[in-house]
Structures are given as structure tokens and as C-alpha cells.
Design a protein that fits this description.
It contains 18 helices and 12 strands. The chain is α/β, with parallel strands linked by helices and 450 residues long. Among the domains are: 55-190, Leucine Dehydrogenase, chain A, domain 1 (Rossmann fold); 208-374, Rossmann fold (3-Layer(aba) Sandwich). The protein has a 7-stranded mixed β-sheet with strand order 9-8-7-6-10-11-12, with helices on both faces. Helix 1 packs antiparallel against helix 2 and helix 6 (101-117) crosses helix 18. The protein is globular.
Length: 450
């Protein structure tokens, strides 16, 4: 590794030694941008990398709320405003018991590069809480969201920081958050949150966007490597949330056979093809467990999760789409996928593949669609929602979907261009990092030492 890169990485490790997810994300980026750093020795003189890996601001706050039993509960809230180089901070809110500062920082750092790849004027941020919305009543969710927003509203705005949803934060939560923001500010500031309901400023195709975008990227990647097609390919998708559901929908529209989906407890394998209407009923309406799929389709199989490795990765497939959470696809699972003949991996979640698994895929010439590029469709469509709010205008589903498809095609072409320019073959993860970093570095140089 270049001496400057090594110095910055070591300094970052020393400053953030208890934040493994954040260090993993920084290492993944710094280890792939060597060609650009060596091409620009002036970066070291202006401490460009040191500033790029340090958040502009981290906000941490308590969130007290009252449950249905009248008990007072205290959670911790976060907002990491990492970079406003090319636009207002933009990134989701995650409500999950796993949330901590390391996870928030890694997500915000990834978001900077992801947002730069879209070509849209949005910076990078992320936030959330260790609040677990599972098995909470609507009233408990509402009280928590109102308390969370009472503090968060001090730090956000449509030209400052624009949160959206993420794990545990869907249309219901965004509605409660927006209502409390509007009440406190006494103004309708539609662009302050994205992922809103259609009745109060949301965008058509937003909920589908991340999953659809993943498949658009996968289509372009396959096409560029042997003119392959998604049609008739077997696909497995981890997760059963928003990203997984709409990745499944678009893959099926393109003629793929999706045979497995999962949640944190196990996975469903349906050799005849997943019935997506059933998954939507279980997950979007009933908010149940994926095991309930057997009640509708008794010929399917349920594989219980026994350890950190999801059983979904033991199923023979052409394309694997990890769409659940970070570091879910381990080295052990990667070996099983390769032995079963997988040809392509598409990251729908944020950093779902461990570094060891990623390296194994690349070394075995498995096509790999990296999260910061392949799942950028969600934030791209959030930016389109912001534009519609500014114009007081609604686009049709077809208009938004067409823009999304164009953006994802352009993102793939950028990854491909940089990978080829620096003789990295089809390593699109490195291409994505180089393309995004180049844009961010130029903006940082132009704006001075700030």
C-alpha cells in the first residue's frame, strides 16, 4: 500500500480502535484508490484523506419514551453528518438493536461515495437508534418517533440534512417523524425527509427503487460480461424487507427464477419459485416471520438458521443477492456459493459481504456488484423526491422508474470505466471507489481547507 494511504489507515485505526465496522469500510475504500492517490501527490499536502475519513459532525442524544405499560424507556439516537462536499447530508435512519456509533459511521462513510456515484448533488450522512421496532404497537412506535424527532429536528432541514428510511424505518415511521417535525417547525418543509407517503409529498417508485436499481445494475454487469442475461437465471435473495422484496419483483419481471428469501431466523426455499404476493402479505401487511410462508405453500422448505451463516447461501444458485444487513455473507458462505456454481453477487444491503468473502469472490472471477454502486437506486430516487418537492410537482411511476434505470446504467458505466482505465479488469468495487473518490477529491480541493 502507498505510504500516505498506510499512514492515514493507521491513524484512523488508532483513533477508532473500537469501531470495527467503520474501520472495515475505510480500509475497503483506501485499499482500492492507490492509483489516484499516487497520481495526485498534492493530496497529502492538503491532508485530503485525513479530512475525508473524519466526519464533519457526530450527534448523539437520548430518546426517552413511554411504552404501553406506562414504563419509561431510554434509547440512544445518532446522526452522523459525514460530508456536505457536494450537497446536503443525505442518508437513512436505522432503528435496530444493533445500532451503535461504529455502524452509524460506516453507513455514513459508505453513503458519501454512494451518493457521489449517482451524479446528483447530495452529501453523505446516516442516523438512527438502538430502538427495536419489532413487536411494538403503533402507539409505541409513534411515541418513540416523536421523541426522536424532537431532538433530531434541531440538526436537519431540506438544505442541511435530509434523512430517509433504512432498516426498521418504513412508511409508518417516516410519517410519524414528519408529523412531529412539521408540528415543531410550524411549517410544511416537504424536502426534509424522503420516503414519505404519496398523500403528503412522497414519490412514486421510491419503495421499489433500491431493489429495482440493484437488478438494473446486475443486468448491465451481466451484459458487459459475455452478453449474459438475467432471464432464466436462478436467484437467491437474503432478507424479506423492502430491498429484498422489490429486487425479487424486478428479477421476476426480467424472467429470473427466485427460489429463496430469508429473515433473521431462517429461509424459505421454494423450488417452484417464490410467490412474492405471499411474501408481501407476510412482511408488509402482517409484519410476520418468513416461516409463515409454509402456511400458504406447504410444498416449500424452511431452513432454520443455526449460526452466523444463513442457510440461504447453501442453496444452489446462479445469482446471490445479499439484501439483509452488514457482514451477513461470510467467507464460509462464499465458499459454499462458489462450490455450487454461483456466477454473480449483487449487494442490496450496505456492506453485506465480509472482506474475506469479497476477496474470495474476486480471486475466483465471480462478478461482484458492490453495495455503494448497486444499491444506490434508493438514495437516487430520494433525490428525485427532493426535486419533486422543490418543484411542487409529481412525476409518474414510469417517469421516476426511467430516471432510476438511467442513473443505475450510468453508475455501472462509471464503475466499468474506472476499472478499465486503471487496468482492474471487472473489479467493479474498486471502480466504484475510484469513480466516487475522484469526484469527491476534486470538490474537496476546490473548497479549500475546511
Amino acid at each position: 500500500m502507498n505510504s500516505y494511504l498506510e499512514k492515514v489507515l493507521n491513524e484512523t485505526k488508532n483513533k477508532n480502535c473500537n469501531e470495527p465496522e467503520f474501520l472495515q469500510a475505510v480500509n475497503e475504500v483506501l485499499s482500492s484508490i492507490k492509483p489516484l492517490v499516487e497520481k495526485h501527490p498534492e493530496y497529502e499536502k492538503i491532508a485530503l484523506l485525513e479530512r475525508m475519513v473524519e466526519p464533519e459532525r457526530i450527534i448523539s442524544f437520548r430518546v426517552p419514551w413511554v411504552n404501553d405499560k406506562g414504563e419509561v424507556i431510554v434509547n440512544r439516537g445518532y446522526r452522523v453528518q459525514f460530508s456536505s462536499l457536494i450537497g446536503p447530508y443525505k442518508g437513512g435512519l436505522r432503528f435496530d438493536k444493533s445500532v451503535n456509533q461504529s455502524i452509524m459511521k460506516f453507513l455514513a462513510f459508505e453513503q458519501i461515495f454512494k451518493n457521489a456515484l449517482t451524479g446528483l448533488p447530495i452529501g453523505g450522512g446516516k442516523g438512527g437508534s438502538d430502538f427495536d421496532p419489532k413487536e411494538k404497537s403503533d402507539n409505541e412506535i409513534m411515541r418513540f418517533c416523536q421523541s426522536f424527532m424532537t431532538e433530531l429536528q434541531r440538526h436537519i432541514g431540506q438544505d442541511v440534512d435530509v434523512p430517509a428510511g433504512d432498516i426498521g424505518v418504513g412508511a409508518r415511521e417516516i410519517g410519524y417523524l414528519f408529523g412531529q417535525y412539521k408540528r415543531i417547525k410550524d411549517a410544511y418543509e416537504g424536502g426534509v425527509l424522503t420516503g414519505k407517503g404519496l398523500s403528503y409529498g412522497g414519490s412514486l417508485a421510491r419503495k421499489e427503487a433500491t431493489g429495482y436499481g440493484l437488478i438494473y445494475f446486475m443486468r448491465e454487469m451481466l451484459k458487459a460480461n459475455g452478453n449474459q442475461s438475467i432471464e432464466d437465471k436462478t436467484v437467491t435473495i437474503s432478507g424479506a424487507g423492502n430491498v429484498a422484496i422489490y429486487a425479487c419483483e424486478k428479477a421476476q419481471q426480467f424472467g429470473a427464477k427466485v427460489v429463496a428469501m430469508s429473515d433473521s431466523q431462517g429461509c424459505i426455499y421454494d423450488k417452484d419459485g417464490i410467490n412474492l404476493d405471499t411474501i408481501k402479505q407476510i412482511k408488509e401487511v402482517k409484519r410476520g416471520r418468513i416461516k409463515e410462508y409454509l402456511e400458504y405453500h406447504p410444498n416449500a422448505e424452511y431452513l432454520q438458521r443455526e449460526n452466523e451463516d444463513s442457510p440461504i447461501w447453501t442453496i444452489k444458485t446462479d445469482i446471490a443477492l445479499p439484501c439483509a444487513t452488514q457482514n451477513e455473507l461470510t467467507l464460509n458462505s462464499a465458499k459454499k456459493l462458489i462450490n455450487n456454481g454461483v456466477i454473480a453477487i449483487g449487494e442490496g444491503a450496505n456492506m453485506p459481504t465480509t472482506q474475506e468473502a469479497f476477496e474470495l469472490f474476486i480471486n475466483n472471477n465471480i462478478l461482484f456488484a458492490p453495495a455503494k454502486a448497486a444499491n444506490a437506486g434508493g438514495v437516487a430516487t430520494s433525490a428525485i423526491e427532493m426535486s419533486q418537492n422543490s418543484m411542487r410537482y409529481y412525476m409518474t411511476f414510469e417517469e421516476v422508474d426511467k430516471k432510476l434505470e438511467t442513473i443505475m446504467t450510468n453508475i455501472f458505466n462509471s464503475c466499468k470505466k474506472y476499472a478499465e482505465e486503471y487496468k482492474l479488469g471487472n473489479n467493479y468495487a474498486a471502480g466504484a471507489n475510484l469513480a466516487a473518490f475522484d469526484k469527491l477529491a476534486e470538490a474537496m480541493k476546490a473548497q479549500g481547507i475546511v
